Amino acid sequence: MASTVDVQGVLNNAFASVGVEWHVKGVLESKKKLYTISNDTKLISKIFELVSIPIITRAVEPYIKSWETEERQTVYPDLTLILSGSPPTR
User: Fold this and answer.
1) Domain count, the chain
2) String of DSSP letters for 13-59
3) Do 6 and 55 form a contact (C-beta atoms < 8 A)?
4) Which of 26, 58, 60, 79 is placed for a possible disulfide with 36 were both Cys, Cβ 3.0 to 4.6 Å?
5) In terms of residue numbers, what domain contains 43?
């Protein structure tokens, strides 16, 4: 019988171990000037992707065959995990 993986638990542990805190204020340029960002969902989404996708892919690597990212901005999902074996429990 194939074992199942608690994907939610794996991801919760991965984010907890990294200690990510979401206090994004803006973009800091080389002369230390801060450009604050708006509440634009595209910007917030991109920041989330930049921080989270490496954590997610590293955490699930033992349980998947591969992953694919979407390069086009308006096509979802942004990240697809291709599972090996049985589907996860969550």
Assistant:
1) 1
2) HHHHHHT------EEE-TTS-EEE--S-HHHHHHHHHHHHHHHHHHH
3) no
4) 26
5) 7-12+25-83
Can you tell me the distance from the alpha carbon of 56 to that of 24, in angstroms, rounded to the nearest whole number? 19
* CA–CA distance, 47 with 5 (Å, rounded to integer): 28
In a domain, 42, yes or no: yes
Task: With beta carbons less than 8 A apart as the criterion, state whether 6 and 88 touch.
Answer: yes
79-83 and 64-69 strand pairing: antiparallel
pLDDT band for 45, please (50, 70, 90 cuts): confident
Enclosing H/E stretch for 10 = helix 7-18
Q: In percent, how much of the chain has pLDDT > 70?
A: 90
The answer to pTM > 0.85 is no
